Amino acid sequence: MRIEAVELIRAALPFKQEFRSALGAQRRRDVLLVHVITDAADGWGECAAMSRPVYTSEYVDGAQAVLRDHLVPLALADSSVDAQSLERRLSEVRGHRMARAALEMAALDAELRTEGVSLAAFLGGERDEIPCGAVLGVADTIDALLDDVEQRLREGYRRIKLKILPGWDLEPVAAVRGRFGAAAVLWLDANGAYALEDAPRLATLAEHDVALIEEPLGGRSLLAHAELARVITTPVCLDESIESAHEAADALTLGACSIVNVKPGRVGGLLEARRVHEVCLRRGASAWCGGMFETGIGRAANLALASLPGFTLAADISPSGRYFDLDLTMPPTVMQEGMIRVPDAPGLGVTVDRAAIDTVAVDAVLIRG
Ligand code: OSB
Ligand code: MG
């Protein structure tokens, strides 16, 4: 396959409701799409980077710049590429994992559409539907949070993940547990908002039957997380701290976590995400597929990844309409009894709705080889 041109499209999708977490407040998703045009088929990728560099160091303007100036030129220089050779080629650029992942996703989509193979089948998926969890930001009041949890449970989500930070932790957790009892499987995500000195406070969360706490400590320290994991009984899950398969192996060896949130963007692509999954499977650690407020494009890739056998816990994947009024793929993604079907058509297995993209696009640049 030869990549003939790459289009970088920026779009803005307003959140239905402002989303607040330890990473700040977000009103709008700044979407960056990568559209690869090859001699055989087109392919689509979605970049996980957000507007500001507050989750990892990447941010959407930076991702666009490194794609335009460095990654896309590398992809266009090769007369024949497949996703594997492209991954190797792009790894010459250090860091910028979300940017590399978006281009790899698009190339893999084009390659698999050409071959008539679904992404799930290519990756080694074994499930045809994925259990899904809801993620709830910081609410205005405890009552508003409880109403939201009730609605999500009614919609069928398999578990509830609350964003927490100092000042929004014990009280909302106790309230949710008090109101819903054992009916709610409860996870917490701190996005690194705590320090090791907060261990006594974090230890008390266990009283509320919390199934996991994600990225409790700031600074991406595996040693600090290992120390915390020794003194709290709630299982620790890492997100931001793990950017590759070898970091996942290190984290599990050190006891920094027992559970891994796997996001293809954060680790540099679907191929590396599959290697993270292999590490977890080999070590008997639980893994699950995280989310980055994706549109239908990124969601399709996440569903394929989440179908691998080691993803034993509910994913941060939601149906169309959870965060935005408009989706960018057809048909709309639906959730039934908390499950979403894994696309089984070639490539990402969804039809990209160019007309919908054009209604929200703010910028599009075509780079030719
Ligand atoms: O920490 O998992 C996170 C979104 C952006 C950045 C970081 C995170 C998230 C989410 C999104 O939690 C969950 C979703 O896409 O539903
Ligand atoms: Mg997280």
Please characterize this protein's 3D structure.
The chain is of the alpha/beta class. It has two domains: 3-116 and 354-368, Enolase-like, N-terminal domain (Enolase-like, domain 1), CATH 3.30.390.10; 121-341, TIM Barrel. Helices cover 37% and strands 23% of the residues. It has helices spanning 60-77, 83-90, 97-115, 119-123, 142-155, 170-180, 199-204, 222-231, 245-254, 264-267, 270-283, 296-306, 354-360, and strands at 3-21, 24-38, 42-46, 129-131, 134-136, 160-163, 186-189, 210-214, 236-238, 259-262, 286-289, 329-330, 339-341, 351-352, 361-368. The strands form four sheets. The chain has a seven-stranded parallel beta sheet with strand order 5-6-7-8-9-10-11. Helix 9 (245-254) links the parallel strand 9 (236-238) and strand 10 (259-262). The protein is globular. The structure holds 2-succinylbenzoate and magnesium ion. 2-succinylbenzoate binds next to loops.
Q: Percent of residues in helical segments? A: 25-40%
Largest sheet: 7 strands, parallel
CATH topology (fold) name of the largest domain? TIM Barrel
So what's the CATH class of the largest domain? Alpha Beta
CATH superfamily of the largest domain: Enolase-like C-terminal domain
CA gyration radius, whole angstroms: 20 Å
- The second-level CATH architecture of the largest domain is Alpha-Beta Barrel
Poorly predicted spans: none
Give the helix tally: 13
Structural class: alpha/beta
Order of helices and strands: EEEHHHHEEHEHEHEHEHEHHEHEEEHE
Question: Using DSSP, what is the number of strands?
Answer: 15
How big a fraction of the residues is strand? 15-25%
Distance between the termini: 13 Å
Question: For the residues shown, what is the average pLDDT?
Answer: 97
Ligand catalogue: 2-succinylbenzoate, magnesium ion
